[in-house]
Design a protein that fits this description.
- The chain is mainly β.
- The chain has a single domain (2-397), classed as Cupredoxins -  blue copper proteins (Immunoglobulin-like), CATH 2.60.40.420.
- 10% of the residues lie in helices and 35% in strands.
- It is built from four helices and 24 strands.
- The protein has helices at 2-22, 88-92, 180-185, 237-244, and strands at residues 52-65, 71-79, 100-106, 110-119, 133-135, 159-165, 170-175, 189-195, 203-205, 208-210, 226-235, 258-261, 294-296, 301-308, 315-319, 324-329, 332-333, 344-346, 348-351, 356-362, 369-375, 382-383, 386-387, 392-397.
- The strands form six sheets. Strands 11, 12, 14, 16, 17, 18 and 20 form a seven-stranded mixed beta sheet that branches. It has a five-stranded mixed beta sheet with strand order 13-24-21-15-19, with no helix packed on it. Strands 2-1-4-6 form a four-stranded mixed beta sheet.
- The longest helix has 21 residues, at 2-22.
- The chain is globular.
Length: 398
Amino acid sequence: MRTNTLRELLLPLAAAAAFGAASVPAHAAVFVQCPGDTNGDAVPDGPGDPNVVCKHLTAGDGFATMGDGQVKYIFSYHDITGIPPDQVFDKGRLAANLPAPTIELKEGNRFYLNLTNVGMLMRPDLFDPHTVHFHGFPQQAPVFDGMPEGSFGVNMGSSVTYYYNVSDPGTYVYHCHQEATEHMQMGMLGNIYVKPAQDGTPFVVNGKTYTQFAYNDGDGSTGYDKAYPLQLSGFDGNYHDQHIAVQPLPFSELRDTYPMINGRGYPDTTNPAAIDGPAENGSLPGTQGVSSLITATAGQKVLLRLSNLSVNHYYTVGILGLPMKVVGGGAHIARGPTGQNLAYDTSSVTLGGGETADVLVDTTGIAPGSYFLYTTNLNYLSNNDEDFGGMMTEIVIN
């Protein structure tokens, strides 16, 4: 009730801020760089270098629905690629996605990532800069790292283009590194992964041919049929309520009461469709757009791109009745200095904040049915006060 009342009180201020920003031509503040693009929508106008990839994200606020139906205020990113510059502020405000839009790249790509800070519509008292930190990527120039100590933040109403020469395959994450604890807790978290150059080259392993791989393994041992990014995170419901209430934020008391996979708590994790935003953000379509439902045909090998972007918790996940093989972690293949294969079988994987793991699940000989992927930290199997939810999803073998 307090959140809704405050929203009503803040709306006139937000409208005034929006009117003020709209009184200046929006395109004057939006500057997009993308080779071959002449109209500023981050899409090349014609055939060009296939290794050039462009994307345009906005950073701002919005709302998301938790597994128990409660609506929480968030910060995050929104994919605005293909939108003309003069429409970016209209389309990007109050459109934060949970999780942030997934970014898929390939080794050898030259990636131009444009970020426009559209401001906080529900918190017009805030003028926070935002950044993109390509977490774990070893090759970016310091100026593109997104850490404000050695880089810079993107001020409200401004745009910056990050450039990456993508040379290392693996599973990564990205997040805002400006006031990192606050902005990450508020939801500025996304999946990003890089496919290896080996993709497309057939390798036969145990009589089966693979053309997709987690890494450049040279022998097909990281081959898979289907891949799913699964980002582990959580919200402190009280923290989010206090944020929109413009109250002092209890950093020392942070405790995730809404553990999630890809921005959803069970059973919403098994909804294959994108979840539209709540009424608080105008029911924008697909703002919680990444399902965690995993499906496969018996005999297929599934790659789980696991990551943890919690700012205050380790998480352990396992699968009832299915084998797990860890073939990489931290965007590095599990190989020793002399090339020995260090992949290992396990029943669970534990990840700290910022860690990633590439896990193969082989369904050969597995009976069709539904299997649970869940956290073995049983206190995280809840949506706040509602039990039988939280960090859990299903693997359906057909």
